[in-house]
Amino acid sequence: MPVDKMVDLSGRQMRRLPVHICSFRELVKLYLSDNNLNHLPPELEQLQNLQILALDFNNFKALPLVVCTLKQLCILYLGNNKLCSLPLELRLLQNLKTLWIESNCLQYLPEVVCELSLLKTLHAGSNALRSLPAQLQCLQELRTIWLSGNLLSEFPPVLLDMPFLEVIDVDRNSIRFFPSLAHLPGLKLVIYDHNPCRNAPKVARGVRRVGRWSEETPEPRKRSGAVIEIPLNEKPLLPPAAKTEPEAEPC
């Protein structure tokens, strides 16, 4: 049994997990990233003290059900596999706080994720998600959601009903319009770059935005249906008597 209760077998090009690893019953961290694994031995269930399990960068087409027996898991890395869904048994991992499922083949966010009541961080970028389930608002502990590189054509409405969110990342999607996020009291950061949007999301004071027309760049002014970007240092000075239409308050 390792003194630090950790085993790191990452990058070994393994096709099978050595079964003797499962005899380390006090193991807390097990890193199996960057191998050629597509299944796990049933003996893994013996690791009931495991809190961190890294299975990212492997060849899993389905999550081995034995993973769902590890009820002390707090962090589960499943990114960069070939997962198209997640089993209903995932709901048994009620201590899970961080879930990485980025860079898989998910066309929808499995609703079982919405049953992980202690989840604080969800990494679901680089999939093929087009929407999010309404049940996501049940995750009242969720603080950070990463959705970059999906197929979202609109800002997910369910996120507007999650006032406890602190970080929202919808970078590299197909969102054309952003609703106001100013009513989300917990929000600290919103990343919306690389979308074909015509506006920036309005946010409350002190919230950082990353994307076009963020704090560093003003939103464009519309004239006669055209969008004209005016740099801050090139705004023309108007004569004193000229009347101008009031500009929209900055986001």
Automatic annotation (TrEMBL):
Pfam family, any one: LRR_1
One cellular component (GO) term of this entry: cytoskeleton
GO biological process: cardiac muscle cell development
Keywords per UniProt: Leucine-rich repeat, Repeat
MF terms (GO), sorted A to Z: actin binding; alpha-actinin binding
InterPro entries: Leu-rich_rpt, Leu-rich_rpt_typical-subtyp, LRR_dom_sf, LRR_domain-containing
Superkingdom of origin: Eukaryota
Transmembrane segments: none
Protein name (record): Leucine rich repeat containing 10
